Automatic annotation (TrEMBL):
Residues 81-140 form a coiled coil. Residues 167-200 are annotated as: Disordered. Keywords: Coiled coil. This is Zn(2)-C6 fungal-type domain-containing protein.
Length: 200
């Protein structure tokens, strides 16, 4: 080996090492030389002309480029990846729906136990009954609200109205919105209801 040759040899090794240590270097599908010599085929970039092993061994031709996926291969991979992502999104959404349904079912089961019913149909009926009752309560509360602005605070708590004497309700029936209110209502002669402290 002439000294000129050995310098070139060292330069090739240095270049090969530089490529292999570069953070931009990529491992490729092995060129025929790397395949035969069972080495990792590393190139500075996908557009490099030779891999580091071919450079190290002074081989003038390296075919790693030919083993690279073609543009249509890339496109196909991109399409497949997009399809997988879409599928994953759909699956996640479905999982969310399923866990919500499961939660709802758990809640209904809990309610069945609370209300002492044994089928979902019975529960439906009970719940419909409940809703109708609530609607009626809301309606009568609304009616009371119209009848007297004084009662606004009590609408949230219908219990507060129980225990009021019959005369109070009679007074309500005839009260005009502009009238000062039923007798006894503001003068403290009304008997103590469960929430009479709020009258003060
Ligand atoms: Zn190679
Ligand atoms: Zn090569």
């Amino acid at each position: 080996m002439s000294s000129d040759k050995s310098v070139k040899h060292l330069q090739r090794i240095a270049l090969a090492l530089k490529i292999e240590r570069s953070i931009l270097a990529e491992e490729m599908a092995p060129c025929n030389f790397c395949l035969r010599s069972k080495r990792r085929c590393i190139a500075a970039s996908a557009s490099a002309s030779r891999c580091s092993e071919c450079i190290r061994h002074g081989r003038s031709s390296c075919d790693f480029q030919q083993k690279l996926p073609t543009m249509s291969d890339w496109a196909s991979i991109d399409r497949q990846r997009k399809k997988l992502r879409d599928e994953r999104k759909e699956t996640m959404a479905k999982l969310m729906r399923l866990s919500k349904m499961e939660e709802a079912l758990d809640e209904r089961e809990q309610k069945m136990v609370e209300l002492g019913v044994s089928t979902l149909e019975e529960l439906d009926a009970k719940e419909a009954e409940e809703r109708a009752r609530t609607a009626r309560l809301e309606q009568s509360a609304a009616n009371l609200g119209e009848a007297s602005p004084f009662l606004d605070d009590f609408i949230l708590d219908p219990e507060a109205l129980s225990g009021l004497p019959e005369s109070f309700w009679n007074g309500m029936a005839s009260a005009e919105p502009s009238s000062p209110g039923p007798p006894g209502f503001l003068t403290g002669t009304v008997g103590p209801g469960p929430d009479s402290s709020s009258f003060a």
